[in-house]
Amino acid sequence: MQPFFLVIIAYLLGSISFGYLIVRGKEGADVRKTGSGGTGATNVSRRAGKAAGVLTLVLDALKGAAAVLIAQTLSGNGWVVTAAGVAVIVGHIFPVWLGFRGGKGVATGAGVFLMLMPVALLCAGVIFLAIVLSTRYVSLGSMIAAATIPLFVWLQTVFVARSTDLRPLLTAAIAGALLIIFAHRGNIERLARGTESQI
């Protein structure tokens, strides 16, 4: 399959806003009008309960993993897989079906890196948990964890699984981190003002 179509498929897969659909089905409401305005697991939990939030988290991660798996299976080219991984995150944050207003990309990004660099994801996950448990800010933990992914990708290729070409993986890690941090720009403003919601 042509790389262009694989990237489009990944974007459209990312654009499936499970959190929006779950809250719409359960509460008959638009989750984007609650809390942070995102469609991700944290905001879904605020509106529809923890079970709905967990389901959203799992489904968002699965679509990230699925986009990478499809690209790996149908192409196998590292740059095409990278493009698909970035595209599924873009689709989650800017879904075409919802006027380009979606989630923050954290769970979908986790699904992408679960497939690409699981050890790096595990290390970033430890950072995430440490920050959330100490500050109770999910947004802060998400941003810092995302920012550390490129470092852990590099460390994983040096100490765990040597890669013949690190460039595609680092590109995906850096692009994913920048997208996730950009999607949290509202949270950054609230953190600076001291009005960000805690768990």
Describe the structure.
74% of the residues lie in helices and 0% in strands. The chain has 199 residues and is mostly helical. It has one domain (3-193). Helix 3 (41-48) runs antiparallel to helix 4 and helix 5 packs antiparallel against helix 6.
Nutshell version of this structure?
The chain has 199 residues and is an all-alpha fold. Helices cover 74% and strands 0% of the residues.
Tags for this model:
74% helix; 199 residues; mainly alpha
* Series of secondary-structure elements, N-terminal to C-terminal: HHHHHHHHHH
Largest sheet: none
Tell me the structural class: mainly alpha
Report the radius of gyration as a whole number of Å: 16 Å
Count of alpha and pi helical runs: 10
Q: What helical percentage do the residues reach?
A: over 70%
What does the overall shape look like?
Answer: globular
Whole-number tally of structural domains: 1
The end-to-end span amounts to 44 Å
Give me the secondary-structure topology:
Layout: H1 3-14, H2 18-27, H3 41-48, H4 50-74, H5 78-93, H6 106-116, H7 118-135, H8 138-159, H9 167-183, H10 185-193
Helix pairs in contact: 1-4, 1-5, 2-3, 2-4, 3-4, 4-5, 4-6, 5-6, 5-9, 6-7, 6-9, 7-8, 8-9
